[in-house]
Amino acid sequence: MVEPLVLSRTSLADQIRDHLLSRIVQGELKPGERLVELKIATEMSTSQAPVREALRQLDALGIIETLRNKGARVRVIPDKELRELYDVRAQIEGYAAEIIAEQGAPLKTKLEEQVRKMRAAARANDSLSFSEHNTNFHRLILEATGNSTLIELWERLHVKVSTMVNVVRQNTDLAAVANSHQPIIDAIAARDPVQARKVAVEHVLANKPE
User: In DSSP terms, which residues pair with 47 in a beta bridge?
Assistant: First the structure.
């Protein structure tokens, strides 16, 4: 039986979403397994409303699917889908890195802070926290471009979810992935747009699922 979580009254749905996401990615909740609102609410000592919202968010992320007259079930995410996502993500993030290197955006300190947090998560073998800080790193770069269309396209890729799924499936060396962000920081700090684009693309493709 799942131990009840101690949840704050703020962002209940987000906390439930992340808890369920972690269980799904870690394999505790299997593909095809039903997710029953009342059961989850009871396990987490909360009402059904935030659970319903959490399930809606997971559905939007493509982690679960809601079938008419059958309710919510854990969805199988094919490796092919992940590989295609990484291909698209590489081009978006490469372009973003090129833009901010050319602009000379002062991101070095903020980016290095996210890498430090990734390393701490790697030491703790905490894939959820690692994915959160990894996503924050790349989001900082995207947001610095000021290009709302580019940011929207990137957000649709659900980088946090895909990273978390990938690191668990591939049994990824989290410390090595954390360290692999440094060339991106260096190229941006050096205001070298060609190198920034190159290393950003290589970084994403190097972590692409096999």
Answer: none
**Helix/strand/coil for 70:** coil
pTM of this prediction?
A: 0.77
Domain with CATH 1.10.10.10 in the chain: 12-74
CB 43 within 8 A of CB 4: yes
Cβ burial of 152 (10 Å; 0-12, 13-18, 19+) is exposed
- Burial of 23 from C-beta contacts in 10 A (0-12 / 13-18 / 19+): middle
Query: Bridge partners of 74?
Result: 64
Residue 66 binned pLDDT confidence (cut-offs 50, 70, 90): confident
Q: Domain 79-206, CATH 3.20.20.300 — does that match?
A: no
Q: Is 41 helix (H, G, I), strand (E, B) or coil?
A: helix
Q: Which CATH number fits domain 12-74: 1.10.10.10, 3.40.50.2030, 1.10.1040.10, 1.10.3720.10?
A: 1.10.10.10
For CATH 1.20.120.530, list the domain ranges present in the chain: 79-206
Cα separation values, 146 from 152, 176, 179, 191, Å: 11, 30, 26, 17
Predicted confidence (pLDDT) at residue 75 exceeds the cutoff of 80: yes
d(CA 28, CA 20) in angstroms, rounded, equals 9
